[in-house]
UniProtKB/TrEMBL annotation:
UniProtKB keywords: Endoplasmic reticulum, Glycoprotein, Isoprene biosynthesis, Membrane, NADP, Oxidoreductase, Transmembrane, Transmembrane helix
Family of this protein: Belongs to the HMG-CoA reductase family.
A GO BP annotation: isoprenoid biosynthetic process
Function: Catalyzes the synthesis of mevalonate. The specific precursor of all isoprenoid compounds present in plants.
UniProt name for this protein: 3-hydroxy-3-methylglutaryl coenzyme A reductase
Lineage top rank: taxon: Eukaryota
Length: 505
């Protein structure tokens, strides 16, 4: 521009361009081209590529058809992806009816005749009602027909639990590998260590003291005197044969053992006890009791039965009557642990264990006002074995009542340990014992099903295994406490070092 102004002043024609001016013009054009390519090339390329894609779409082969839809049962898995799949129209209508409350969820199995399909539809209805995917709860891989009418109602899936094996437990001359279903770290490992100490010392011995399930109905009489008359009638040995005949007619295995009564005002509590074969026996004893109550109405028409269970049984509640009188199987299990095993396997000494047991399990529990809780952790082992073998986990309450005793024997060198458990309630038939996983665990112990040759012996054997497992667990935990290893062990087995975010992803 400066040069053009000078040309105008000197009257020089503008179209006359010198070498310097030509270089300047060339540099200007080159700069403009560079700037355009630097800032605009990406934009131009995106427009061009987009245009090319649109043009090519018309010439592409049509995409292949989507894969065929999965069967109806697989569209209800409960996962996020499965929830997005379209359900069969018929199932969709049923789900909508359940959500709307037009079809009760509990009739699905009967209405559809397919337990798996019913569980899937119920699960989808729950998902829509709650807005929760419940992705981690598996649905497939379980036989829902096997629980119909006996184990669980309104199923939407099943819970997975790891099962560990402790053993061999050398008990009464036999070796048992004890299945334990638990989510607590250290439990199986600790029980396994106790089994090792018992085995290296020659094994444990058990005795079944009593075997009888109880049910205690409560009836109200017009007066306390009338209640006392019924109490006397039931407890009179002269009437026992008649009562037994009526009671035993309810089952080929039920055998009445006795009736114990208690009065509160004009209310009479009647605690019937009977053997129940290899079944845990709650239903069996309840049927027998109902037969007796019906018969008693003839002689005591003024008896008003309030409930078939009056809590004097006592089921699934801590009660002194079970601790004193027993319920289910009453078992004592004992072993003598050699001095060198105490030192080598248990890492402690006899005197420390004896002292700890007195101060902790006996005096400490007394200070706490414990009822049948004079032990270190019997319920841990009982519950783990119960879940693995299909027992009723709620009966852990009374089944875990236990007193653990430790004494120094053989001039103080060796350790005598025993557990006394008056109310272990187990069975090898009925309830959850017939489920595939639980039946496999019972089979591992050699107590699956009913014993045809000696009815009740399988259930009694299972009770002794439970007591033997508790003996091993008590021995190991008390040793860990005496040696100061409890915290160290739990930090090792209960505190995973895995990066769980990576595991989940």
């Amino acid at each position: 521009m400066r040069r053009w102004r000078e040309k105008i002043r000197s009257s020089t024609p503008l179209h006359v361009v010198g070498l310097a001016e030509m270089l300047a013009i060339f540099g200007l054009v080159a700069s403009l081209i560079y700037l355009l390519s630097f800032f605009g090339i990406a934009f131009v390329q995106s427009i061009v590529s987009s245009s090319d894609d649109e043009e090519e779409v018309d010439f592409l082969v049509a995409p292949p058809p989507p894969p065929p839809a999965a069967p109806a049962q697989c569209s209800l898995l409960g996962s996020h992806d499965a929830a997005q799949e379209r359900m069969p129209e018929e199932d969709e209508e049923i789900v909508s009816s359940v959500v709307a409350g037009k079809v009760p969820s509990y009739v699905l199995e009967t209405k559809l005749g397919d337990c798996r399909r019913a569980a899937g539809i119920r699960r989808e209805a729950v998902r829509r009602i709650t807005g929760r995917q419940i992705e981690g709860l598996p649905l497939d891989g379980f036989d829902y027909a096997s629980i119909l009418g006996q184990c669980c109602e309104l199923p939407v899936g099943y819970v997975q639990l790891p099962v560990g094996i402790a053993g061999p437990l050398l008990l009464d001359g036999q070796r048992f590998y004890v299945p334990m279903a638990t989510t607590e770290g250290c439990l199986v490992a600790s029980t396994n260590r106790g089994c090792k100490a018992i085995a290296e010392s020659g094994g444990a011995v058990s005795v079944v003291l009593r075997d009888g399930m109880t049910r205690a109905p409560v009836a109200r009489l017009p007066t306390a005197r009338r209640a006392a008359e019924l109490k006397a009638f039931l407890e009179d040995p002269v009437n026992f044969d008649t009562l037994s005949m009526v009671f035993n007619g309810s089952s080929r295995f039920a055998r009445l053992q006795g009736v114990q009564c208690a009065i509160a005002g004009r209310n009479l509590y009647m605690r019937f006890s009977c053997c129940t074969g290899d079944a845990m026996g709650m239903n069996m004893v309840s049927k027998g009791v109902q037969n007796v109550l019906d018969c008693l109405q003839d002689d005591f028409p003024d008896m008003d039965v309030i409930s078939i269970s009056g809590n004097f049984c006592s089921d699934k509640k801590p009660a002194a009557v079970n601790w004193i009188e027993g319920r289910g199987k009453s078992v004592v299990c004992e072993a003598v642990i050699k001095e060198d095993v105490v030192k080598k396997v248990l890492k402690t000494n006899v005197q420390s264990l004896v002292e700890l047991n007195v101060i902790k399990n006996l005096a400490g529990s007394a200070v706490a006002g414990a009822l049948g809780g004079f032990n270190a952790h019997a319920s841990n082992i009982v519950t783990a074995i119960f879940i693995a073998t299909g027992q009723d986990p709620a009966q852990n309450v009374e089944s875990s009542q236990c007193i653990t005793m430790l004494e120094a024997v053989n001039d103080g060198r060796d350790l005598h340990i025993s557990v006394t458990m008056p109310s272990i309630e187990v069975g090898t038939i009925g309830g959850g014992t017939q489920l595939a996983s639980q039946a496999a665990c019972l089979d591992l112990l050699g107590v699956k099903g009913a014993n045809r040759e000696s009815p009740g012996s399988n259930a009694r054997l299972l009770a002794t295994v439970v007591a033997g497992g508790v003996l091993a667990g008590e021995l190991s935990l008390l040793s860990a406490l005496a040696a100061g290893q409890l915290v160290k062990s739990h930090m090792k087995y209960n505190r995973s070092s895995k990066d769980m975010s990576k595991v989940v992803s």
